[in-house]
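Hi all, long-time lurker, first post. I run a small reading group and we've been trying to get comfortable going from sequence to structure in the token notation. Rather than ask abstract questions, I figured I'd post a concrete chain and ask someone more experienced to write out its structure so we can walk through it together at our next meeting. Sequence below, copied exactly:
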Amino acid sequence: MPVSPSLSRSLPTRHAGAWLLIAAIVAAFALVFGYVGGWLAPHRLTPKRIVNQFQKNAGVFPGYRRNHAKGICVSGYFVGNGNVVPYSRAQVFTRSRTPVVGRFAIPGSNPYAPDGSVPIRSMALRFTQANGQQWRTGMNDIPVFPVSTPQVFYDQLKAKQPDPATGKPDPAKLAAFFAAHPETAALRSWLKTARPSASFATERYYSLNAFVFTNAAGRRQAVRWVMTPIATDATHDSHKAADPDYLATDLAQRLADGPLRWRLMVTLANPGDPTNDAAKMWPSNRRTIDAGTLVIDRTTPQESGPCRDVNYDPLVLPDGIEGSDDPLLPARSAAYADSYLRRTSEEAHLPGTAQTPAKPKLESTP
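-- Answer (accepted) --
Happy to help. Here is the structure in token form:
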């Protein structure tokens, strides 16, 4: 069938228009990815810059997390009691048992730091629901986060960078940072009286960030949560002074006597409670619901245990739980991913097996 002259003249034009549209789309994606990666804005805060600053502060320990590097794997299960079902359709909250792979740790980038060197402890958990969806959460035993935004968190890391002359942070820089950021006062006040605990088992672990529960009808509810321990004694602290790894020793001793348990307590926000600022606590009279019991019954070394390859990204969430508008959440997620890629890449090049990182020599960051 012959093609009319007018149609034949329009074909190149239409093809040219289509190619221009495709090129524009590709260019737009390139700009987006370039911006996210920091290629087009070298001074913009990126996950890479945050993780690099952790390395500048503490050095590089190949094969280990860039923060909370010293830890121990645990496993067990969560027993939901159904109390939170009116607020969240997540399967984990039903009357069911959900397997858990977790990790206790202390903050910092040195996997060989003495347990008494910092007063903060953390608990990270991965719940795997029967439908295959996962809920991952990283919590700390501090009641409030020091800062509100990723940029200020990065500025805090920079202020804490050791002075090459002393090997310690410059007190003047820290003082200037705290003076410029009064929101840090709540945590600094807590730290004045905090002492390194003798056990992971006796600590309360807070979500700090706000999240959003959605129920079967689509109703949304802002929440925070805390893991509250059932164990409260400190009977296994006699080895604390002599053992730099006393937290792992204590945990093994306690588990030899039986499983450890925490209650998952979910706090419901009232209208107007801030969901975008982890440095602000909610009023203590907010309604709190017992959502179920976490049971930890086993511990294994982190180098070979099931938590080793888990990235405890706080935005890996099942249907029924969403991230809030807290800007720290996407920053945590991106930084965790960057750290995960670095350490898993390093493990593949370490001497010995790829499963167990060799004890590294402290290296300076380029």
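A couple of things your group might point at:
The chain has two domains: 1-44, 70-327.
The chain has seven helices and ten strands.
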